[in-house]
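Request from the bench team (R.T.):
"We need a structural guess for the complex before ordering more S-adenosylmethionine. Sequence and SMILES attached. Just send the tokens back."

Command: build protein-S-adenosylmethionine structure.
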Amino acid sequence: MQGIVRIAKDGKQMRQAGLLVERMKKGDAAPDKHFNPYLHEAMEYGNILFTGSEWAEKNAAVFDDADKPLLIEIGCYMGKNVLEFANHNSGWNVLGIDITYKRVVKTARKIKNLNIKNAKILISDARAAIAEIPDGTLAGVCVFFPDPWPKKKQLKNRLLQGPFLELLARKLKPDGFFWFKTDSEDYFANVRLTLENQGWAESAPDALPDHLEPLPYTTVFEALFTGKNLPIYRRVFLPPRKS
Ligand SMILES: C[S@@+](CC[C@H](N)C(=O)[O-])C[C@H]1O[C@@H](n2cnc3c(N)ncnc32)[C@H](O)[C@@H]1O
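Reply to R.T.: structure attached below.
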């Protein structure tokens, strides 16, 4: 276990994202090899930064008011949008999910310094975290610029594939939404086709989710691509009607 400090984005190591944080929260010593300052700083955010097993146990109870609608941003990077969502939508709970110590710690640091009560951060593979949510309870999920894995032999690593999209449909409320943005035309086309086959509906290209404060919530990667005049593919998708 000692070597698991940098988290790769695929395979076994990603599934173990957060294991060291979890062990240290339970009182284990930090690994002395590969010292990672973010791993140590993670211990300062007990009530802000959660691990997969804490999420599995507590779910929405990680928030002060568990009854608020829950918005999840998968792959939230350093937390820019988690902070924006939480600040502009005080009637919501916002959970950011990412898999690297540095990104979740930097997000937790901002949440703490700005004293934001309705935002939390989770270190976990999003697939495991979403699976823990009770069916039909998630108000919204955002996936902005997921790693595109453009090479043919890497396609299996893409986060947004049929089974995961089906899982999202099951977890979303009937009036919930899935907001997707990417610079990859191919990734967008594949996700859109899969969702269409699963019975999802989609909004107009530039529409924003109905229930949130209507702001663009521009992401760090989005700014990079638009700065180079590259096209962005985006849609708000609505889950299939449950019979
Ligand atoms: C290309 S970056 C995009 C960051 C941000 N959404 C933006 O648009 O600026 C993709 C992010 O997804 C995270 N990520 C990749 N696979 C993930 C997974 N299975 N679960 C959660 N986060 C993941 C990465 O660590 C990274 O922060």
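Two things stood out. The first helix runs from residue 11 to 15. The two ends are 46 Å apart (CA to CA).
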